[in-house]
Amino acid sequence: MPKSKAIKKSRPRERFSYDPKKVLARLEQLGREILEAVREGRNPYFDIPTRGLNNVYFDEKRKVIRMGDKLSRRYFLNVAHTRKFMQTLLISAYVKRLVSEGKHASLREAYYANKHTIPGTKENTFEDQRESDPIIEDLERMLGVLREEMHLTADRRGYIYGDIVIRDGEDEFNTSKLGMGGWAVPGTVEHLHFIEVNVDYALVVETAAMADRLIEEKFPKKENALIIATQGQASRGVRRLIHRLHYEEGLPIIVFTDGDPYGWYIYSTIKQGSINLAYLSEKLATPEARFVGMTMDDIERYSLKNVTEKLKGVPPNKKGGPTGDYKRIMEEMNYPWFQNKEWQRQLQMAIKMGVRIEQQALANKSLEFVARRYLPEKINSGDLLP
After folding, report:
1. What is the pLDDT of residues 115-135, one digit of tens each?
2. Fold of 159-380
3. pTM of the model
4. How far apart are CA 85 and CA 62, in angstroms?
5. Which fold would CATH assign to domain 20-153?
């Protein structure tokens, strides 16, 4: 069967190169500016891109959510700002040490490493990780680098399986030769090198159970595909890996989630980015990604009506509505990136039918159905949503 346009590789657009010297240079420049202000008797400050909806927009040309140019200024000699100013300098110094020494720390370790009582007071530098995490996000926006480039990582989530060879430090391996569990995606993927990529496309799968099913049915080998299991909302490491595989290796990205507002949002964040991380969309989002399912049309096409689940909440035409799933779907209907005809039709169908459909519902046909018919049929025919 000839391949559809959806799974034809594109020419790589970029080659990622992590440069710790760039991170160190930006941190040192930040330190010099503060030091000069102190020496000249001026009030030191940081300019930080403002977070929040009022500083986020959808870039129609690039098809990603982006951060605007609004800034907030954080002064040292301001009672309301002083604590966060101090915390920003502490984390900056810690990051400089990590990058200089080539070491990595988890977000939790960064919190504990910088928590102490200020001499001569009863005040702690940090009381909770909920204080340190936003400071790290501030630094990302200020410096224009990923936290992963600052050697700060979160817990790993997600795995990949397929015929690609990766170099990770001194280790080189094929992710299809590590057992059926594949290779766990680390919190940071900046240091990885793709030595060989012998697959036609990457299939991003929401649930580990479905990814496991596809591997057991030998889908990656039969369809020459790379499986990327997100295990729910895709982590930053997984989204960054998807981005790199597409733009550096030219791999088409096809997303397979549940047919519900949460699955569609998972697709949305992979494709356009997220509002919370709008300042990182250029490095995390993959606007060329396409959606294979589950769709509302699948319910009729594959006779799955008896294995649907009811949407939770109150529909918009009922008193007190919309709430729950219905409210979430209506919010998605207003997203600029879901304004095309096909997505509007899907979301309206979901509200009208009042149901959702899970990936695992395909097992109602047979355990082999998803790997032998559903995915090959839809992908090879190009039956994908934009």
Report:
1. 999 999 999 999 999 999 999
2. Dna Topoisomerase Vi A Subunit; Chain: A, domain 2 (3.40.1360)
3. 0.89
4. 34
5. Arc Repressor Mutant, subunit A (1.10.10)
Using an 8 Å Cβ cutoff, are 335 and 277 in contact? no
Q: What is the pLDDT of residues 316-327, one digit of tens each?
A: 989 988 999 999
Say if 20-153 and 159-380 have the same CATH topology. no
User: What is the domain partition of the chain in residue ranges?
Assistant: 20-153, 159-380
> Is pLDDT at 5 greater than 80 in this prediction?
no
Whether 360 contacts 209, CB under 8 Å: yes
Tokens at 299, concatenated: 């319910």
Q: Is 279 among the residues known to form the active site?
A: no
Catalytically annotated residue among 45, 112, 161, 201: 112
